[in-house]
Automatic annotation (TrEMBL):
Family matches, as SMART domains: TPR (SM00028)
Protein name: histidine kinase
InterPro entries for this protein: HATPase_C_sf, HATPase_dom, His_kinase_dom, Sensor_HK_TwoCompSys, Sig_transdc_His_kin_sub3_dim/P, TPR-like_helical_dom_sf, TPR_rpt
Organism the protein comes from: Flavobacterium polysaccharolyticum
Superkingdom per UniProt: Bacteria
Family annotation (PANTHER family): NITRATE/NITRITE SENSOR PROTEIN NARX-RELATED, NITRATE_NITRITE SENSOR PROTEIN NARQ
Domain Histidine kinase span(s) in chain numbering: 589-676
Segments forming a coiled coil: 517-544
EC number: 2.7.13.3
Family annotation (SUPFAM superfamilies): ATPase domain of HSP90 chaperone/DNA topoisomerase II/histidine kinase, TPR-like
Membrane-spanning intervals of the chain: 421-439
One family name in Pfam for this protein: HisKA_3
């Protein structure tokens, strides 16, 4: 029966993968701590139970998960996954495989990404989920092709071919195997060459191209020597069984028996591959049955069935029981024949292996001829469904490849779009930064120009004040000369004349002398008045000289009152000695008042503005208070304009302190305190 070769090859390849998975790990130079090495060795120790292997492997996994995500830790994760694979802990195998995939994607490690895809494909293959397994194998194939990893590419292609074979896509499987052979052409890869030739032999057997099948099995057998493939894999026994099976299909049972007997002679077969040993026993028994040689029959059938029962090989059990049913039917033992046929049908249905169901239904029709019509209808229904499914299978795998390529293309397009968006965003960011820097530099330049203009204006004001001071000094000198002349020419002359006249009248006591003295006394009073007036003029001059800064401020206030509707209250502490204050401080105070008035006029819209200069008691400091009852503003939210910046700057120039209090709707209060 055709299902036997399929079952055996799948089992053989699967067991070979279990043994070889560790050897396929990418070589990496690293040093592991003793505990990790110990746990990994224990997890691979065949002398321990599966429970203990799993326990040690979980401990190794905990250590690896604490390592940083580098190539060494990812290689260790693959080792852990291999050990879960070997003990058939499929869920743990899947979890670790996906974990190493995530870490490989994070580091963009293409080699480990491809390997992870292959491992996840192995998981889905073990669960019979051929669609998902095919997707991951196809992804791994694409990556291995990309960086010319021919050995792993060939192994992945063989995994794909096995999936296609199991789904009866024989032509697709054939193409995949041939691609695998091309990939390893010239490479030292005896195991891949053997598996490829062996699978091609099985494929052509299913296609009933028996000559080709024998040729490829012969090539596989020629490659199954101990120096090429370790004997523990029992590759030679495998090929001998498969060649015998081809001859069995050709009904050359004598030739088939020879190959089966030769296969059973292989050393340690029963211990290395008990499933293969049971298969050879069953096939040998069936060939002898067909040759009418009753030697060791039905004992060989029963021995094989017992071993398969212990190994829980469902497909092998079904094949064994159908052979037993044929054997007992031939010997007219209808009870045993029906019993084994029914058990085979029940097992096939429970296993949902519909090809085995077909074989069992055919046998049931033979041992229960009274129900042959019923079994025949079910056979036809299942066979039609299988043929439809097989016709669609090749299209399904092609569609999976197409959809995977489409998704990859869309992802590539998305990556390109994201890259383009990144470039656009980067360019816009650079333009924004450039614009910000340009505007900032321009503003700084403007500020420097403004400060330079302020310094020029300050120098002009200073020069003006010096010029005014010089004019004042000149006027003072002129006034002194005028006073001197007045005193010399007027007051002194008069006083000298009065003194001389009084001297001449000291001895005279007549009426005329008395009258003359009274007139001279009146003249003295007039001289006294002249002196008083000159004194008053001098006092007025000194006051004007001292209060020159006050005059400038007063003029500013008067101009404000004339130009704007706001009422201005201006007070000046008389204790401030302006003459002792430097021109620089007076200029800055004047400018602060000027800026404050401009801000009030532009923004505050006040009814009343108060300007007050005070001297702090017992301190060489002056306080300037400027308040208004205007609209006010939020000092935290409103950006400071040039006016406020100028006030701050001038306050700092005077080494003073500035305080601004304001709220929306509550006016503004500005306090400047400077040392004198």
């Amino acid at each position: 029966m055709k299902t036997k070769s399929l079952l055996f090859f799948a089992l053989f390849l699967f067991l070979t993968k279990c043994s070889n998975k560790e050897s396929n790990t990418i070589a990496t130079d690293y040093s592991l701590n003793d505990s990790l090495t110990y746990y990994l060795e224990k997890a691979n120790d065949d002398n321990l139970t599966i429970l203990f292997k799993k326990k040690y492997n979980n401990k190794a996994l905990e250590i690896v998960q604490r390592q940083t995500n580098d190539s060494s830790s990812r290689a260790n994760l693959f080792k852990v996954a291999n050990r879960f694979f070997n003990i058939n802990d499929w869920q743990s195998f899947k979890n670790v495989s996906k974990e190493v995939l995530e870490k490989s994607l994070e580091k963009k490690d293409t080699i480990f990404i491809a390997k992870s895809y292959s491992y996840i494909g192995d998981f889905y293959s073990s669960q019979g989920n051929s669609d998902s397994a095919y997707v991951y194998y196809y992804k791994a194939e694409k990556l291995y092709s990309l960086f010319n990893d021919d050995l792993n590419l060939a192994r992945t292609l063989l995994n794909k071919a096995l999936l296609q074979f199991n789904e009866s896509d024989f032509l697709g499987s054939e193409r995949a195997v041939i691609k695998a052979l091309r990939a390893v052409k010239g490479e030292n890869s005896n195991d891949i060459v053997y598996d490829s030739n062996n699978l091609l032999g099985i494929i052509y057997n299913e296609l009933e191209e028996y000559d080709k099948s024998i040729d490829y099995h012969a090539k596989a057998l020629a490659n199954a020597t101990d120096d090429k493939i370790p004997s523990v894999y029992q590759s030679r026994a495998t090929s001998l069984n498969n060649i015998g099976y081809v001859y069995q299909n050709l009904k050359n049972y004598r030739k088939a028996q020879e190959y089966y007997q030769e296969g059973l002679k292989q050393k340690n077969l029963k211990y290395d591959k008990p499933s293969l040993y049971a298969m050879l026993l069953d096939n040998l028994a069936y060939s002898r049955f067909r040759l009418n040689e009753e030697k060791e029959l039905p004992e060989l059938f029963l021995k094989s069935l017992k071993l398969r029962d212990s190994l829980k090989l469902t497909s092998g059990i079904v094949a064994n029981k159908i052979h037993l049913s044929e054997y007992y039917s031939y010997h007219n033992d209808s009870i045993q024949a029906v019993r084994y046929a029914r058990e085979a049908l029940s097992s096939a249905r429970n296993d949902k292996n519909f090809r085995n169901v077909l074989v069992a239904l055919k046998q049931m029709g033979m041992v229960e001829p009274q129900n042959a019509t019923l079994y025949s209808k079910e056979y036809i229904h299942i066979n039609d469904s299988l043929q439809k499914a097989e016709r669609k299978m090749g299209e399904k795998f092609s569609r999976i490849e197409y959809e995977t390529d489409v998704i990859k293309s869309e992802n590539t397009d998305l990556v390109v779009q994201n890259r383009n968006l990144f470039y656009v965003f980067s360019i816009l960011t650079l333009i924004s930064v450039f614009t910000f820097v340009f505007v900032s530099q321009r503003n700084k330049h403007r500020l420097l120009m403004f400060k330079e203009q302020q310094q020029i204006a300050n120098a002009e004001i200073y020069n003006l004040m010096i010029s005014q001071q010089k004019t004042i000094e000149d006027n003072r000198a002129k006034e002194k000369k005028r006073v001197a002349r007045e005193l010399h020419d007027g007051v002194l002359g008069k006083m000298f004349g009065v003194r001389m006249n009084l001297d001449t009248m000291n001895t005279a006591q007549d009426e005329y002398a008395i009258k003359s003295r009274l007139e001279y006394l009146a003249e003295l009073k007039q001289i006294e008045q002249d002196i008083r007036e000159i004194s008053h003029d001098l006092n007025r001059e000194n006051t004007e000289l001292i209060n020159n800064f006050v005059v400038i401020l007063t003029n500013l206030i008067e101009n404000q009152r004339k130009a704007f509707k706001s009422k201005v209250n201006f007070t000046l502490d008389k204790n401030i000695e302006w003459a002792s204050i430097s021109n620089e401080i007076k200029i800055n105070l004047y400018r602060i008042v000027q800026e404050a008035l401009q801000n009030c006029n532009k923004y505050a819209n006040p009814y009343l503005i108060t300007i007050d200069f005070k001297k702090i008691n017992h301190s060489d400091r002056i306080q300037l208070f400027i308040t208004d009852d205007g609209v006010g503003f939020n000092l935290k939210r409103v950006k400071k304009g040039i006016g406020l910046q100028n006030i701050e700057f001038r306050t700092k120039e005077c080494k003073g302190k500035l305080e601004i209090k304001t709220k929306p709707g509550e006016g503004t209060a500005l306090t400047v305190e400077v040392p004198i």
